[in-house]
Amino acid sequence: MRGNKLNKYGIFRKRKMLATDKPVVFLDLEIGAESGQILDIGAVRSDGEKLHSPSKRDLQRFLPGTGYICGHNIVNHDLKYLENILSKTLDLRAIDTLYLSPLLFPERLSHALFKDEKLQDGEWNNPVNDCRKAEKLFRDEINAFFLLPSDIRRIFAALLYDHEEFKGFFQYIDFIPSDQDTETLIKSVFSGKICENSDLQRLILEYPVELAYALALINCGDRIAIPSWVVNTYPETGHMMEMLCNMPCEAGCDYCRQHFNVRKELKKIFGYDGFRTYGGKALQEEAVRAAVDGKSLLAVFPTGGGKSLTFQLPALMAGNTVHGLTVVISPLQSLMKDQVDNLNAQGIVEAVTINGLLNEIERADAFRRIGDGSAVLLYISPEQLRSRTIERLLISRNVVRFVIDEAHCFSAWGQDFRVDYLYIGDFIKRLMKEKGSKSVIPVSCFTATAKQKVISDICDYFRKKLNLDIKVFAAEATRENLRYKVIHEETDAEKYNTLRNLISAKDCPTIVYVSRTRQTREIAQKLTADGFPACPFNGQMDPEEKVKNQDSFIRNEINIIVATSAFGMGVDKKDVGLVIHYDISGSLEDYIQEAGRAGRDPSMEADCFVLYNDNDLDNHFSMLNRSKLSINEIQQVWKAIKDMTEVRKRVCCSPLEIARQAGWDDSVREIETRVKTAISALENAGYVKRERNMPQVYATSISVNNMAEAVSRINTSPLFSERQRVDAKRIISSLISSKYISKASGDEGESRVDYMADMLGIERKDVINAINLMRQEGLLNDERDMSAYIFDTDTEKRSKMILDRFSKLEKFMLSQSAEEWHTLNFKELNEDAQADGLKTSSVKNIRTILYYHIINNYVQKRMDQDTGITEFSATMPTAQLLERYSRRIDICRFIIDFLYKKTGDEIIGYGRDGKKVLFSIVELYKEYNDIPRIDTYKERIALKDVEDALLYLSKIGALRLEGGFLVLYNRMEIKRLVVDNRIKYKVDDYRFLDDFYKHKIQQIHIVGEYANMMVRDYNAALQFVHDYFQMDFRKFIAKYFKGERVNEINRNITLKKYNRIFGELSDTQLNIINDAESKYIVVAAGPGSGKTRVLVHKLASLLMLEDVKNEQLLMLTFSRAAAVEFKKRLISLIGRAAYFVEIKTFHSYCFDLIGKTGNLEDIKDVVKNAAVMIERGEVEQGKITKNVLVIDEAQDMDENEFRLLEALMRKNDDMRVIAVGDDDQNIYQFRGSDSKYLRSLIDEHGAVKYEMTENHRSKADIVKLSNAFAGLISHRMKESAVRAVRQERGNVVIVQHCCSFMEEPLVHDIVDRHSSGRVCVLTNTNDEALRIMGLLKRQGVRTKLIQSLDDSVSLYNLVEVRYFLKVIDRNLQTPAIPDAVWEEAKMSLMRVYSESECLENCKNMIRDFEMVYPMKYRNDLEEFIRQSRYEDFYDDKREAVYVSTIHKSKGREFDVVYMMLKGISAITDEEKRKIYVGMTRAKDELYIHCDTGMFKDMIPDGIEYTVDREMYTESGEVTIQLGYRDVVLDFFKGRKRDIFRMRSGNELFVSGDHIYADIDGRRIKVVKFSKGFRERLEKLYNKGYHLVSSKVRFIVAWKGKTDEEETAVLLPDISFRR
Asked: Which pLDDT tens digit goes with each residue over 1196-1248?
């Protein structure tokens, strides 16, 4: 430093003149953030004089006598506001300490005027203080400059002297650039630190400032990040460092040979001697070199093939050379954590991850390490690219590369396409734009398996998005140390035995892959029980259990892990010797990847087995159908967003709220992911834009003078707890820092809640709470950051009415709450609430309140992953909950009053039909606490109470709020781009996703083909795999799938199942099933035309081929028996998938809608009420959002059922309706049904009509007669006659009697003709049926009466049913009925009621329930019973003679049918249709006995018609079935014990007014006749009838309106003969 010496200030100076002798003024301005006007001026002269004034004129008088003006960010900030002043004063040269700071102090991350620990000095917003800080910094900068080596000073002067931001500084210190060649000087000074062949000349000319900053950093030597201010202001600085230090030259200079020797760095960093090879090719080394050379690349390396090292090594090298950050994007949180942990275990600590598995402290530490440059590898998920905090963090760093793991997710042809991956390119482009960088950030993509189409898609994506050329490094998919084998097994038992044998034979670390979550536990438990200790692993498990089981396997504490595909990602276990696929994978890519987890040590050989049968593929198709996001679902999300943005085109909401608005079942797993995927699809198509997760900005107006004042007031305030004091100090320190950064350095200040939470490691809710407390204390100005929208349709009365309705319901719910875990039956709770007088209660409202309680942590919930049962428990005692409830409701009432009052005083703005009112939580808090109160003993409320009340009002819909605290609950901001409500999400928009799903279908077929090929020819199968990954996909398909097989692999169903569904169907049936385009379809189906079969096969087609989800498919029937029959047939056709299809009766479905358990006694008006609730919007959206509605027996709809149908159609714009019926069989007009409603679907809604007129049931003559008779019916829908498929004529006889007493000749006809088969006698009335049955029994004919319980008696009250339920309840401890409990109840029922004639129907009821409910829940069982009829469970498939009314026979068929038509002339259409129904029950023979001439003029040829002129006497057999009205019900009270000892069918004895039974050797009274029945008996006796026999028909439970206990009632049959 010869020629210079220190002055008295410790600053170097030139000999010829002291730098400090030059006068200088230090200046700082305070500028209004909104007005842009000067608010305050501070100036300090070098002689100590100061100015503090808001007046520019004062400044003008202060400046003369100085030649320099200095400040922090003065050139591009302060001086702009002083242009008119400076032009009128002396010529002043500017010195900017901000631009000098990164040059002279490159190791500093922040270049603001202060450090946080110095905040307590002086007033934070006093500009004079800032002037003094600027002066001190300026002196430090002079000192630092002259401490630099002379050559570096010359370099800086040469590069920067001519730039306004630096020129004043060099003039002040009289430092003039030398004439020495700058390029030569740089090469000399930085020899060994930069590439000798860098294009320095171009950089000097084009980027001198950036080059200077880069050289300052390089000269610093330490690994530090480029300061964020430099990155933002001079974004090409990072690129300068890349060009100087991180781009190997072709010539290979000493620097490049030293720093880019990848083998040397591999040994140095990881300790490895060499890179991996694949098939003899050095692909790993080549990929590493490409990354080091700055190229973009795609590496396709097999599982365990060293993908991680391939990007980690270049990342760590770039961290050393240019302080660069590599961002790794990975879809799995656990994989990120594992990779960071593995690096740390090797002593490499430069990697961090930011994901949901971190706690707040870990998360803040990760942000700190990224910010200060100590981390050079950052692992995040693609979803996190939406975070404003992440974006800001990456803007502040020199990002040198993006690494995308699992890159096949980009491609619709990959096995795991993810829509959120498509945002990556847009994010990188946005990041470059925000930085102002012209240089494209390179990318490295990695995947374990990718066929050529996927590789092409990835390359095309980055070429299109970022104009990047991707270099591909692809290894072969197969590994030489693995042996593959497929074993065909037909049954699960065979599979398990083989699995056990393979494990036993190999005895090594083993992975068993299964396709379903539940299987992991089941098979692990079975193996453990059989002596092979195993642990389960699946994605639904508790994280702690997952980690424990995974670690046990890795540490060899157990040898076997049974897992779904969720296991293995990133798990580095080299000694796995056996991988067994219990179920084959869903694609070859998945299979190769999962099998590749064996033998990761190349020196060992490992075995890979597949236990295969064709059902594996069906399971994969079923899972694909359930997981697939259909176009209809995206349309539903789009409609939900349109509804939510009707007034404001932006909406802040959670995925769950969108799901509910869309009508999705919120209990579906991964529903949030599905919603986000739908939004991404809409964003991709340009309908919406999902903004970065950017909650409300808080606290931009600080009201304290300095940090010391803030600390003092926080310490003395009674508002803060100790924890809150600590948080508040850190937050206000951050806010003041942010304010300074924004003003002093030009950086964007940050005061957003999420940013502060992330950076400070404080939970978001605690940040918001601290800010509100500081507002309350006055440290921060109270900003109105919330808004209420008051619409013209809203009234204070309406809001209060909603609040009143919900508050009463909530109070009732709280009275039912419990702290122990329990299940909730929402319908029962709703019924109880309504019974308690809350008539407006609904399941929808109950769920809303429960949702509020859960997010507010009043209630917690958990789900059993095996059973799917959700349980709830209160988190505090009921008394405490009620206390909070009372306080909240009082605050809610105040808020409504307050905000409606403000609508008249302070309207901020208008939306469509609405007014916007601004307010704040603190404002509400203060206003509420200031209200004079009589009950002064009550404690003042806290801010949290106001937050709770606002959230409550928002959730129940009493007020429409946004902003402020709602950021805690609304994590997405969505902007609607397409504003026309008529525009729908279209098929073209869906094409990309559709391609993905179509390819998934092909992948399942292809992996099945591989399995079959592996059994036949091992080498051919290996070639198949090779071709799959290496050939063009179309050529691959052409080679292996020829002819019709091309069509087969495009169906999401196996060929075997496809043939089951579509084989053996008629052309008409196929046309109906294949019609996926018509919105509304009406099928006019004649008798025996296969209506049930077509509907079942149509349901199968909808589920398996037409993308309809089970929860969005609804089938409605008119009887529980029909619903059960459809469900049984569907299960038989498609398997397990059928269990989840909603097939219900109209009444059952409507009970669901209105939120009641429902039973047949309460069905009056239930359909009408449900329709009204739908119209009013009072029904849960998820219950009525349907894609397809199928209606059986649609001709039987009445006015209310059709109203329900139209209400559903209005709520679902795109819902398809398939209505099947036969207007000729509409026989329930007496209860309001009318086929005109079916016709209106055609006439008013444009439904396509199909006619099914092929009768597969009846022989030709039966069809001929029924056709002729149907021709008499008017206004028929079918235009074609029914055609018999069976060609045999059959036997049809019509006997017209001249006497109306036809019972005896009909019975003789049966006795003479009957030999075998199923015969049915059809009558018009129940009494006629009973008489026929009596006569047949008298003739010794085995007879069964298809009877029903009395209309006032339900199946649920049958004693046998009650006993069955009682046994279950006695042993039941969970909502699900264990198999052991179920079997015990069945055995006990059959043992105790073995003699009961009702037992067969009860057994059939149990069997049907078992068939349609795979998981047996107590609530489902009771509902099933309550909504069923006794006659639903008759088994009419056995050979016998059945007796029934025509109405009860509908839907049944018999070999032979006898009809007794007494007194029927068939004048009305209703009578004609009833007779037509009776005729068409017959398959082979039909015998009609009538007493009118209605058939004589329309007998077809070949039909036998005779007239019987014999006169018969009235039937001597009468059987009466007694009901409630026939007995004295009070008589049974106190006789329960005796009645329970009776059984249906037991003999009884009638005497006088009573019926007796023999019990324990005693004859006791068991029934007392009512007065009305005694009169009826008297009439029978007067006609000459005498008692023949009596027996127990039913024993049922009955309860009078005022009774507390139920009574057992015996209902008998009594037979008489004359």
From this structure: 999 999 999 999 999 998 899 999 999 999 999 888 999 999 999 999 999 99
488-492 CB contacts, 8 Å cutoff, 24+ apart: 488/612, 488/613, 488/1015, 489/611, 489/612, 489/613, 490/613
Q: What's the chain's length in residues?
A: 1618
Nearest to 583 by CA among 532, 505, 519: 519
Q: What is the DSSP string of 183-226?
A: HHHHHHHTBTTB-TT--HHHHHHH-HHHHHHHHHHHHH-S--PP
Residue 1313 tokens read as 């003709």
Phi, psi of 634 (to 5 degrees): -65, -40
Phi, psi of 806 (to 5 degrees): -70, -35
Query: Residue 1429: which pLDDT band, with cuts at 50, 70 and 90?
Result: confident
Complete DSSP assignment for 880-918: HHHHHHHHHHHHHHHHHHHHHHHHHH---EEETTEEEEE
- The answer to whether residues 180 and 107 touch, using CB atoms and an 8 Å cutoff, is no
From its phi and psi, is residue 1090 left (phi > 0), alpha (psi between -120 and 50) or beta?
A: left
DSSP one-letter code for 1376? B
Dihedrals φ, ψ of 608, to 5°? -125, 115
pLDDT score, position 413? 61
Count the neighbouring beta carbons within 10 Å of the beta carbon of residue 1380.
9
pLDDT for the residue numbered 933: 67
Mean pLDDT (whole number) for 509-525: 93
Residue 838's Cβ-side half-sphere holds a number of Cα atoms within 13 Å equal to: 22
Q: Name the pLDDT band for 864 (thresholds 50, 70, 90).
A: low
Which candidate, 1612, 1598, 1606, 1160, places its Cα nearest to that of 1354?
1160
Nearest in space to 1441 (alpha carbons), one of 1323, 1262, 1310, 1339: 1310
Q: Which two tokens stand for residue 420?
A: 């959120």
DSSP string, 1127-1172: HHHHHHHHGGGGGGSEEEEHHHHHHHHHT----GGG-TTHHHHHHH
CB 1414 within 8 A of CB 1126: no
Neighbours of 41 (CB within 10 A): 24
Name which residue leads in pLDDT, 187 or 775. 187
**Residue 826, φ and ψ in degrees, nearest 5:** -60, -35
Q: Per the structure block, which two tokens stand in for 668?
A: 């579906």
Residue with tokens 């990975």: 330
**Residue 859 contacts residue 875 (beta carbons within 8 Å):** yes
Contacts 24+ apart (CB under 8 A), 423-428: 423/382, 423/385, 423/386, 423/680, 424/329, 424/382, 424/385, 425/461, 425/462, 425/464, 425/465, 425/466, 426/465, 427/385, 427/391, 428/402, 428/465, 428/466
| Residue 1 pLDDT greater than 60, yes or no | no
> Which stretches of 717-795 are DSSP H helices?
722-740, 753-760, 764-777
Are 441 and 399 within 8 A, CB to CB? yes
Mean of pLDDT values over 622-650? 87
CA distance 1424 to 1415: 13
d(CA 1277, CA 1220): 12
The pLDDT of residue 118 is 42
Three-class SS state of 458: helix
DSSP-derived letter for residue 469 is P
Count other C-beta atoms under 10 Å from residue 479's C-beta. 23
Phi, psi of 970 (to 5 degrees): -110, 95
Q: What is the dihedral of CA 946, 950, 956, 959, to 10 degrees?
A: 140
Residue 1581, C-beta contacts closer than 8 angstroms, at least 6 positions apart: none
Dist CA 854 CA 874 (whole Å): 9
Smallest CA-to-CA distance from 1045 within 1082, 1016, 1017, 1006 is with 1006
Mean pLDDT within 666-684: 82
- For the record, the structure tokens of 911 come out as 């939306």
Comparing C-alpha atoms, which of 361, 424, 367, 419 is closest to residue 390? Answer: 367
Q: Which burial class, exposed, middle or buried, applies to 379 when counting CB atoms under 10 A from its CB (0-12, 13-18, 19+)?
A: buried
